[in-house]
Amino acid sequence: xxxxxxxxxxxxxxxxxxxxxxxxxxxxxxxxxxxxxxxxxxxxxxxxxxxxxxxxxxxxxxxxxxxxxxxxxxxxxxxxxxxxxxxxxxxxxxxxxxxxxxxxxxxxxxxxxxxxxxxxxxxxxxxxxxxxxxxxxxxxxxxxxxxxxxxxxxxxxxxxxxxxxxxxxxxxxxxxxxxxxxxxxxxxxxxxxxxxxxxxxxxxxxxxxxxxxxxxxxxxxxxxxxxxxxxxxxxxxxxxxxxxxxxxxxxxxxxxxxxxxxxxxxxxxxxxxxxxxxxxxxxxxxxxxxxxxxxxxxxxxxxxxxxxxxxxxx
Length: 314
Hints:
Number of domains: 2
Low-confidence stretches: 38-47, 104-114
Order of helices and strands: EEEEEEEHEEEEEEEHEEHEE
CATH class of the largest domain: Mainly Beta
Helix content: under 10%
Structural class: mainly beta
CATH superfamily of the largest domain: C2 domain
Pfam family, one: C2
Largest sheet: 4 strands, antiparallel
Radius of gyration: 20 Å
Mean pLDDT: 87
CATH architecture of the largest domain: Sandwich
Protein name: C2 domain-containing protein
Strand order of the largest sheet: 4-1-9-8
Number of helices: 3
C-alpha cells in the first residue's frame, strides 16, 4: 500500500551560528530506510543509498511546516516499514525564494530541496514505523527530540481504500494572482508594501477520532513590495494535493514575508479543486468578477485571488 508522510516540528532547539544576532536555524528533514531495504521506498528524489527524500529548507524558524510530501510503499504483508527521520540546520542554504515585482528571475537562491551535508548541525533524530502510525487515532505521532522540541509525523494512505473507485489521477496545473491586498507594511516613510506569498493546504479528517488538520502541500515564492502579486504557475500531483478527490477541501493561506521575524498571516480562503476550475477568470487577469475573497480572523476581506489557470492533465 502506498502511503504519504507529512512532517512538521515545533519549538526545535536553536543551533544557528548567528543566534547571538537573534537568528534562528534553517531546518530541513531527511528520511532514510532503517532496515536497508530500498525496495520499500518509492523515492522521487534519490532512489539510492536508502534515502527516501529530503524536504525543502524552512528559513529562520524553529517550528517548520514542510511542504514536501514523502511517498513510500508500506509492506502490508510483513507490516514492518521502519524509517529514520533526521532534522538538520542548513548552514549553506539560507535564502528564501523571493523575486521583485517586475522581474521573473529570483533575487535569492532557490532551494526546493536541501542536500544533506556533514557541516549541517543535527537538530534531532527519531526512528518511526509506518504501520504503527497508520493505525493510530488521527494517524499522527508526536516524537519528542533529545535536542529540544518535537516532531509530528503524519501517515495516511495515498488513495483511501474506500474511495479508490471514485478518484481522479493526473496533475493539477494552476496559476494565481492577487488583487487589492491589504497593506500592513509601513516601510520607509510609509511607502513600503507587503511581500506576499501563499500556502496551499489540504484538509485531513479522521472520523474515528474526530481529528481535523490541515497539511501543507505547496508554498509559492514571495514577491517583494507589492499588493497585487502575480505568482508563478505551479503544478501538484492530484494524489498529493487532494488524494484524487476533486471535492476535498483545500485552503489558501496568505502571508507577508518578514526577513528578521516570523512571517505575518494575512488571511485565508477555503476552496476545492472543482471550485478552482469553475473560478477561472473570464474577464482578464485583473477581473474581480468571480475572484476568491481572502478574509482575516474578523471576517474582513483583505484581498482577492484571481484564478488564471486551473486544470487537470494526465
